[in-house]
Structures are given as C-alpha cells and as structure tokens.
Amino acid sequence: MHRKSIFFISFYALFLALFVIFSYIPYIGYITIGPISFTTMHILVLIGALLFGKGTGAVFGLFMGVLSLLVSLQYPGTVNYLFLNPFVSILPRVLFGFIAGIIFDYFRKKTTFAGFLAVSAPLCGILTLLHTVLTLSCLYVFGYLDIFYISHLMDLTSIIEANNNAFGSFGNFIAAFIAPGAVCEIAAAIIISPTIMAALYKFIIKRNERSFNLNIDFISETDSTALSKKSLIVITVILGVVVVVLSALVLFLFYYFK
Fold this sequence. Notes:
This protein is mostly helical. It has ten helices and two strands, in the order αββααααααααα.
C-alpha cells in the first residue's frame, strides 16, 4: 500500500509538471488564434483517465482547470479572460476527466489490451468533443448568461458585450472560431492519447504493477467474459462513424456561418 501511494504521488507530480510546462510554454498547451486559445492539455487528461480511470481523470481535469484559470490572467480583454470564472475553467474539465474515466473503466474491464487500444482511439475523439461542449456550455451559462452574477462581479461584462458586437451572437462566435479548432483537437486526441497510454502501460505500468499492486490488468484473450473480436470491430466502427459524423457537423457549422 505504501509503495502504491509513492507510485501515484510520483505519477501525479510528473504529470502536474507536464501540465505546468504545457501551460506556460507558448504554442504547446495553448495555441492562441484570434480572441481565444485552443488547447492540447485535454490529451494529458485523457492519458490519465485511460490508465487509471475516473479518479485520476478528475484530478488531471482539476490540474487543467486550475492552470487554465491562472493562464487566463495573461489575456485581459479577450474571451480567454472569462476563464477567470472557476465555473468556466475548472468545473467542465473536472467533469470531462471524471466522465472519461468512467467510460474507460468500463471498457478496460470488458476488453483485452489490444481491444482496449482499438476502442480507445475513437472514444478519445468523442470525449474531446464532449470536453468542448462542456466548456462552451459552462462559458455560456456561467459566463454569458452569468446566472451566478460572477462575470459582473469580476467586471467581465465588457468583454462579453464586445464579443457579441463583433460576432452578432454566441453561436456565430462558436462557428467562426471554435468549430475548426475542435476538429484539430479531436484529431490530436485520437492519434496521440492512445499511443502515449500504450507506451506508458507497457514500459512503466506493466513492469512495476506487481511491485506497486496497481491492479489494472486487462482481460486475457481466453477469458470468456471479454468482448469478442467481432464485437470490438463493430463497436470501433460505430464509434469511428460517430467521430466522422460529429467532425463533419462541426466543420459544416464553420463553413455555414463563415
């Protein structure tokens, strides 16, 4: 138990350092285009959720949210500055990591490692879109609608008014700036997250799981409770189609409103 605690403290500390590096080195964690920044930080959250489930996913989401709040201080007068509101910066990221962990936990218990790796790629794409939806929903409800009066107390209403004057509506703003960036975030998550997860699992987790008693073994090929290859193929294809359809819809919104 003591060794397991040491392992997780070290693992969390390593990723917290990566979150800080991603946050403060330009064009690594945040890529600023126009009035808003796009992020690659969700990839780190997905890796944590892929490996250790909902608890780690929520903690990594908290890391991402707190750092996005701190980074927003560098962009006064822009939409990024609205992320000073913790309901906009922290809440959706914690929910994103927690939900991703629940979904990955379910498939980890039903699949072999190879099967989990296949299914996780399209899942990462869908969950990245979920992250975008959660963040924008919180931005609209707690920022633009300001149901808790936080934007007014933080003197952020001038930014909201300026953005509405520039784009006409919140929907136009999403279509013009968020849609193309969201597709890029989805593509990055699909390619990078499962790849890094697989490398960490094979070269770090697998080699130390007996010493630290991590208990994240996947189902063996001969286990009758594992999803069959045919089922995995069907699930992966369906998830892949969902990713393509959702990405096409996002791009359609971009070109339609452009």
